[in-house]
């Protein structure tokens, strides 16, 4: 979901304007859209709040500086990523991290993939998935020397493991 260009609310109105023969997209929330449309009626050009000084190829100044960065591993520029929609190698995630995080948040609303499980998945599958997640968190807590969290996670892991063993044992 796109965010409003003026504030951080979700954009509900998507406007494509033609300026000097070039199309420019503006994404606005309902409140900012009302302001924008009322100002657009008063004057034929948008107000200063909505003027975005464009460079020769349609990029804003802050985007232009970002576009020039290059991945040292594969040589892809951020501009190439923006036009193609694909990164060149795994190192690009590190190289362009500061610019990718807001982009991913804007599109998906989150930066961490939570994954999905089928609704009808057996309870043991859910517990296995929970066990994998807890072990991963435990490893991270130990690496960060957060021993209180590690102890809590260890106890949770033992509880889930005992539940799994209880389900796996044959009933008499």
Give keywords:
172 residues; mainly alpha; 3 domains; two-stranded antiparallel ribbon
What is the topology?
Elements: E1 13-19, E2 22-28, H1 30-42, H2 61-67, H3 78-84, H4 91-95, H5 97-108, H6 123-143, H7 147-168
Antiparallel strand pairs: 1-2
Helix pairs in contact: 6-7
Task: Give a structural overview.
The chain has helices at 30-42, 61-67, 78-84, 91-95, 97-108, 123-143, 147-168, and strands at 13-19, 22-28. The protein has 172 residues and is mostly helical. The chain has three domains: 1-52; 54-114, no CATH class; 123-168. A two-stranded antiparallel sheet has the order 1-2. A hairpin with a 2-residue loop joins strand 1 (13-19) and strand 2. The chain is elongated, with a radius of gyration of 24 Å. The chain starts with 12 loop residues before the first strand and ends with a helix.
């Amino acid at each position: 979901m796109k965010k409003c260009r003026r504030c951080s609310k979700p954009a509900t109105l998507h406007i494509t304007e033609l300026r000097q023969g070039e199309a420019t997209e503006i994404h606005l929330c309902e409140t900012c859209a009302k302001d924008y449309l009322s100002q657009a009626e008063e004057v034929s050009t948008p107000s200063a709040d909505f003027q975005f000084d464009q460079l020769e190829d349609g990029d804003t100044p802050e985007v232009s500086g970002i576009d020039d960065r290059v991945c040292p591993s594969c040589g892809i520029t951020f501009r190439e990523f923006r036009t193609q929609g694909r990164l060149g190698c795994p190192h690009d995630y590190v190289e362009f991290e500061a610019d990718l995080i807001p982009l991913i948040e804007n599109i998906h609303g989150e930066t961490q993939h939570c994954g999905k499980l089928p609704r009808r998945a057996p309870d043991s599958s859910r517990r296995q998935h929970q066990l994998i997640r807890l072990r991963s968190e435990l490893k991270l807590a130990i690496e960060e020397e957060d021993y209180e969290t590690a102890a809590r996670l260890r106890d949770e892991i033992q509880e889930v493991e005992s539940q799994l063993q209880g389900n796996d044992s044959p009933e008499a």
